[in-house]
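Task: encode each sequence below as structure tokens.

Item 1
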Amino acid sequence: MRFVANTLEVRDLSAMTDQDDDDTSEVPRSPDDIPSYELERALADLTLMDDPFLRMQITNLTATDQALMNLEQQVLHRLVDEERTPIDDTIILLAFSQMWLFGAYELLRTWRQRAKDFEKLHANGGIDLKIAALAARGPKVHPVRDVRIEQLKELRDDPDVIKTLRDDLRRTHIPFRLLETLRVSLAKHEVSGKKNALPYASGYGRINRYTGSLDFEISMDHIILDVVSRRGIADALRAFSDGTPLPDDDTIKSFDDYISGVGLPTAPESDAAFGDEADPSE
């Protein structure tokens, strides 16, 4: 991910080279050096992730992350050995990578929405009313409802919970927004939040020469905002528990402006069809 606080790096598509999307400042770890528990622990340690049904999804993401890293390495080794793209393995890798990204997005989206709902209940004093409303629902035993009630009671009774919840929302903000933007490009073939803009190569992935993971462009008309891989997203999620300082308000605002395309140069006239073009009839 190329975002740096208060910095917006953009590149014109015509200036691209075959490997200019590789960041040589830090070579990623080998899959052999990444234990499976890193991703599971990073996600499970988020406040409210003690829900056993969300934990099941964490387990699914962790297991498939390990399998995909092995497949990514296999694709990379074949690319080097055969000096051409291994089409058969790459097709499978592309399909499974997108499914993993969609699953990761849905897990974080669900968790963040619940966390924000809990934050609102805490702020407006509605926790007891919510507990009573849930308890009044049948049947007598309902595992999802019962977990939610226990989480609400903990939020009400332990003043530390709201602080850690807010910290976790801040901690996950940038990786989630990046994942959300990539998901819109891959699944909807659109630019997130930009009705009339077009993604340049939605769904097209290039094999990263360090990890074998597929690099996807996040673009807006003629501008590439970032190049993101499934492995890069997984590493960002793993970093939730590595002690990285929380982003401050300025960093979050700067990132949100960056990923939304605030301040981007306008498209050249020759590329007007890619963006917002005035209706000549008006």
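Item 2
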Amino acid sequence: MPLQNFNAPVSKKIRMTLACGRCREKKVKCDFAHPSCLRCQKANATCSYAGSPTQLDLFNLIQVNETVNLLQKRVRSLENELQSIHEKKEQSELRGKSEEHNQWNLTITNQGLRIDTDIVSMDDLYQLFNSNLISPTPSSPCDEMIVIKEKLWKSEYKTFPLYNIWEGGTPSLSSSSLSQHHHYGDNITSDDYNEHHHHHDKNCQQFDSNNDSSFFYPHQCQPSPSLLGVKDSQHVPKFVLDRLIGVYQECFICLNEPWHDDTLSHRYFHEELDPLLANAIFAWSARHGAIYHDLFQGQDPNLVGEPFFEKTKELLKDRFTTSNIDTVHALLIIHNYMMGKTGIDRNQAESEAYMYLGLAIRMTLDLKMNQEIETTPIKKERNRRFYWLAYFLETLCTLNIGKPMSLPDDNNNSKTVGFPAPLNHEIGPIRWRVEFMSQRFRVIRIYRRLMELTTVALEKQPLSLQTINALDKQVKDWYAGLEFHFRYDPHDPKWKTTNQATWMRDLGCLKLNIEYHYTMMQIYSLVLASSSPGTPMNISALQISRFSADKILELIGSWSISLPKEAWCYFALEPVMVTIRLYTQFIEQRDEDSLVIKGRMKRIAVILEDSPVIHSHMVRKILDTIYTSIGAASLEEQSLQATPSLDYWSSNLMTALSPSDFMQSPHGA
């Protein structure tokens, strides 16, 4: 019951009682029967259970608790009843379908699949093949269970391109010493800047069509300290910051602005960009540009972004309690920045990255980005892009470092939140980027299901072959739904030359096709790991995996010819690694095509050696693994000297990859 309001000492503790006021005054025992106790009834006296502010009537609390428990029981009863009705309905429908289509049986023989049926009409037989219905009680191992013994393959090295991982550095420099002594731009001049301007301007000007000057234009004025918030901002030339903004807008492909005006570059050049977001962008772009785009030559890529990152963390301290779009944006960027950190503090950096991602996810939910509540198309599209980016990054984070996922999956929000789609004003390269990421989000959702099913199978029960077939169908349906310009035709002449006007479209095509074959190889790796060699199921899985591996090689071959060198910052190594893994297995088993397979592995090596990512520590170790597998001389033995300037930072202390690195990682999921 409500407490009376009057001034009482705060230090007094609340005392619980069941007695009425009259019994308390007389200091006698009360049977605390509501609304009137027995003693008050006999005396025809008023029975009141009101007390002082330091007294609490426990009887009412007990009554409320009992009422709540009763309501919970009723709700559970209704839920169980509804579930029972739903299950009975499904069983009834299944029986009806079974009775209608139970005219055939499926069996697996040494020669392949065999269908036994009493159908004599060709029309009925055609209907059977197009019905997509399987008998619930087949007479063969059609529902054979697959015992999952391992998690999905995953390299121990994080290879997601946007993490910008650089395995190297120097022990003589730290982030603190860099922020105190390093002057940005010492190795970048406006002439160096202009060498890269032409390509980026052509491909990125669509981000701010209303701005008179491209955001790559080298303004020579100093940046606003209010934008940077960096104490020694006079040491950061404006044209360097312009370049970093441009690098971000072109290379951070997974988030595309839906705004027709008031774009990020517009806000930046009008000094209206949130300092938190600006510094997060500068930090990410500095390391990315140092690794892939010849910025800060001769300097450690792991250190060039640290002053910006330290300022980002300082500004973030005042932003934890308030959710807004710019804070979510900045958190997603610095999550990627922290995921790419290397060195002895790698584990701490991964935990910090997970914290930033978790905070970004909570803010997206707080801003109701998981609900289609916005009325304007631009805001609705903005929410979709942020929500699915958080979903995408969380899946990759779980895959790479084994952290649990928090965003709901298909049974909840991801069914109600639509996938991103281009708006009417988004044309040309920006439209291709949006379409590409929309398809990328779709396939990562399938991969997330594969991860979850594998985890459940490891902990509880094996997977059925039908589950594998269902995943196979989902991936093929996704591929069938790709836009026409994302369909790969190896005979198309566009793969023989580089087209600066359409390379973003071609990039999306190649990456999505590589992702399709990589996912197929991951699905059927479960079958290969659990089936005996020579069985029909194993042979079929090998054929599918071999076909996908060969297609991945073909696709990266087209990549090396048709895309400019700037596009290699989008190149993912995991499909290459899983292809090498399969080829190595064929060679070790002395397959009859071993010579052909060795030739294919050599082709991969040639492509990587001629690529701009040759300076990557991981690429060099992949090449060493290839040469070991095919019995050729390693890179060191070949005295390979074509090393970019960034190789100055290659670490001689890194351990070499072993074949086990291409087999299984404890971080896989």
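Check on item 2: DSSP finds 23 helices and six strands in the chain. The first strand starts at residue 15 and ends at 17.
End of task.
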